[in-house]
Amino acid sequence: MQSTNPTTSGNIIANDATTDQDGRRTTYGSNRLFSIFQQPSSSLPPSHALELPSTLAASAETSWTTLTMASGGNILAIPFRRTHSLRLSDAIKSYISSKYDQHPATFQHDLEVIDQLRKDAVASLEAHSSGVRKLQGYAAQLVWMGGKFPVDIGADFTWFPSLGYHSHHPQTENNLRFELANIVFNLAAMYSQLALSSNRATADGLKTAASNFCLAAGVIQHLKTSILPELRNAAPPEDMDTLTLESLECLMLAQAQECFWQKAVKDGLKDASIAKLATKVSDLYSEAGDWAVKSASITSEWIHHINAKHNHFAAAAQYRAACDCLEKRKYGEEVARLRDALNCVNVALKEPKINRAVTSDLQGLKNRVQEDLKRAEKDNDTIYLIPEPPKSELRVLDRASMVASRIPPELAKSQEILSDPRGELGKPLFAKLVPYAVHVAASIYADRRDRLVGNTLVAEYEAMTQRIHELLSSLSLPGSLQALEKPLGLPPGLASHAEEVRQANGVQRLHATIGDTEKLKASTRVLYQEGLDLLRTEAGEDEASRRKYGTDRWNRTPAKDGMPKLYKQVEDIQGYLQQADNSDQMVQERLRQNESLIRLLGGTNRDLEDFVPSSRRATMTAKVEREANQLRGCLNEVSRLEARRKRKVEQLRTKAKEDDVSSDLLREAGRLEREYPMQPVSAGQFEALFDERLNRYQVDEEELKNEEAEQEKLLTRIREANSTFQAVKKGDTSSREREQALQDLENAHMTYKQVMRDLETGRKFYNDLAAIVTRFRDECRNFVYTRRSEAQVLEADLSTSMEGMRIQEQTQNQLLAEKEAQASQQRQARGFNGGGGSRSSSNAPSGATRSPTTTASESTTTPMAAPMPQRPAQVQQPPAVVGLQTPQIPQQTTWQEGMPIVFGGQQGTAAAAGAGGGERQHVNGAGGGAEQQTWDPSKGLKFMPR
Fold first, then answer.
1. CATH number, domain at 201?
2. Cβ count within 10 A of residue 173
3. Do residues 73 and 67 lie in contact, with contact meaning Cβ atoms separated by under 8 Å?
4. What are the DSSP calls for 106-139, one per residue?
5. I need a labelling partner for 810 at 20 to 30 A (CA). Which of 46, 616, 854, 894 fits?
6. The domain containing residue 332 runs over which residues?
7. pTM assigned to the model
């Protein structure tokens, strides 16, 4: 067998070359080998016919049958795995209802299709090309659904193994990938069954069989490398371990290579080429056998079959090499190779449990080898006289590998085919179902966008505007300028502010907003308090049970330690509410301080004119007018800046509102599902998309920086202009009161707008907080319900345990009491018997001297028969002699039911009476009744037999 060393084999599909044992690379005519499927069929030479399996050599119409665990044949096909019927749509429908915002009825058609796909796929248990499409279609949808749903979707898939000794023991897993692994395994089995059913007596049949065997090997390889490693939270099936799959892959490749060898023999290629093909067949069978021996799922029948085929093709390779030696006149090497071929055949025939077809093939080859060996030995010994080289010196045969594992594109690129509208696998199901991770990602993006726009841009614009008004207020602007410009009546700016307040309904709107905010705050506090009360009640119940049963028995984790995240929310929400209260008080205090002025702004112009005092019209000098105009120009620039900024803020808010990322998220989710079909989409996979989308706000950030720099320059000019203005009008106090009144109203208007913004912010805050507190309250309800359920179970267990302990304690106490009573009775009985015995001894002489003329009843009394013993029998006294009074000796008797109880005092009394002349009779005597006496406890009790 040295000539078929598998270490020298190699895949030469691409370059058609082999490497010999010494490492020399040899090209052996690739075109010749690859053209064997294109050559016309021809009749085989008689000397080579025996290398083919006998079934084909005898008749081209004989089909090869599947060799499963109990059936025989020349070739092996993988049996199908079987399963139970299941409505996968029920689990999908339930999951969509609980985890998605979409209604399951939207996907009614897809639900019906997935059930039909599974039904067709699991029913494809016959070798037919339609079964391949059904299995591929269902497998593609399972891969697609792996990105839409979790593996543990809630469907229990049950499958029976098809290999090994436990094919009747099913395995059930709640795992979509487990279902996919079984479907793909059946796809490999389908390809092997199709190869088996091909008519391998024809060139086209051999070509089809070889292709299907290579596809089966490719499917097994895909199952081994791509599907089973992703089988999370489930054990791989028993017959899908690595050892078994490696053996099956090598077996499929060996049988595909055998088809190439058979076609080469059929077409009458050169012996050297056929030897190379046969050697590779032997190598692949050898590798399959090595893996099979290590596997626990490959039965001994398969192992013996594979070993027999390995030795068969090793013999066929040496036989063909011997024929090549004969052609090249290497007679000594011919004999050696024929002898090695005969040894290989004999080893194969020694394999037990091989079927008749394999045995017949081996026997036919053996007969032919024996005939040629006999002829070669005779010719060499008589004619050529060339020494026969030892087996160790024979050149290792070259290999010609014509096969490789080939994964069907419908399996390897199923998601690309599904996305093609013209694809053969149909369209992807549940395509409109948005993964939950997409909803989460949309929320994350919206939060980041709103924080960027609201906190970074809008809030900064508002803060900049607030700094402008703080500066103007500190400079008494524009009041001081308005008093000088318009000493009588209302300035236009103040009149427009008053109209703005009146249009907004002024103070009434502020108080209405405060009322709405207080209602929201109150309802939020009620929700928070409800959740807090639930937690406190549960904690009290838990503590009461702990005091009742003790910490040793009531040993479950306290709620605060068991759910720290929930109790952390208690502190967080309390902090939010406290901060909100402080902010509300500050806003309301600011409103109280300026409420009268805001009411005045919301009133009539006459009220404002009455409030603002008029000043005498002063004659402004040219210098004062010039400085006033310069200051007015700065204030007008501030107004323009505020108007532009207000428009910018509105644009930013509109831009953020219209920034809908849903379409991009769905597009990215689709790409992720196609590129990573077995990996569920997660929100973290959209980070790159978030960064790209938020980059569109970089322009706005740059504008903010530019405007901030522009504002600082404007404020500087305002300070300088106001300083110059105050210097030129220094000494003019005629409009001081008017300046102060106008400035107060201007400040009141700014406070009004600030309070309104704060109130709106507060109302939005409480709306958001209400959602958080509602979720907190619901979590508290669920948590308390779970804790109470656990407490009920634990309390029931403890009650049962304590009741059992109480019953056990009562039983023990009862047994102890009974033992104590028995011990007490035995002590009293021993004390009484000791006292009675002494008295009997003292009274015996008196009894012995009694006159024979005793009463007839006493002298003729027959002793009572002893009761049936229920314990070890007592020693019986001999029968009394007639006419002789026998002294009454107390017997040590165990009391039995029905025995009378005799007080110890009667015996002594009766004995004493007998000694006195027989005036008194024994209690059982016939001469009279028993005497009434008082029982003496010190004398104990005695049980007397009847």
1. 1.25.40.280
2. 23
3. yes
4. GGHHHHHHHHHHHHHHHT--SS-HHHHHHHHHHH
5. 894
6. 38-67+269-402
7. 0.55
